[in-house]
């Protein structure tokens, strides 16, 4: 058992969640199936997917492949998926969409169910539906993604249950301090999507120099930096060797001075496509188009 994949954080409902996992955004079906199987074979615990990614069925099949080859069981996996923007709204609409996701994933529950985006005029109603799913036991924890302070404050004003997680874009180029500080004050765990910034910082001189001093890769330094900012990380890679490297983060620590050097790289610029999804409730908008994984070859 890879001990580097065992550290966990306790969420505000008491559930323990792994600090390091595998994200599967923007990967085609067969690649997703193999990378999930490889990840579980290499002792990964946390998997993060979404209906928007168009590959939940491949995640489900990859888990089954790994269970057959390793003897692991569903209980050994911390599985996260997300409510699709096009399924947001009242309970019946959310429930119908979620049931289809469970079927695709070949499971009868998820460990963490997130709202993928705070769709204006729908997110409070969607959250109420998610609270019912949580009460039914089909999600062990519920949370959100991409919420800013304004929308998180509004959600908390209407919610019965405080989100366990807010998953946001977070890496050395974007820190989003306002929402990070707000969530930490309200006992909402932060989780980083795109913790490696789509690879844009792997050749950044500051990070390369720090990596050399620790005899680590730039990716390991970026991930360690995020962990030291108290975030959960879900880097994506299709390569088993990089999966192992991405988990090898607990035999070194960045100094405060090194963290401050990396902090200087912040530009607070979102990924170039971010605004195409942001806050939209338009049924004809890009937020309601499920990605075709085959287009990401």
From TrEMBL:
InterPro entries: AKR, Aldo/ket_reductase_CS, NAD(P)_OxRdtase_dom_sf, NADP_OxRdtase_dom. Coiled coil: none annotated. GO terms for molecular function: oxidoreductase activity, acting on the CH-OH group of donors, NAD or NADP as acceptor. It is an enzyme of class 1 (oxidoreductase). The record marks 82 as: Lowers pKa of active site Tyr. Belongs to the aldo/keto reductase family. This is Aldo/keto reductase. It comes from Limosilactobacillus mucosae.
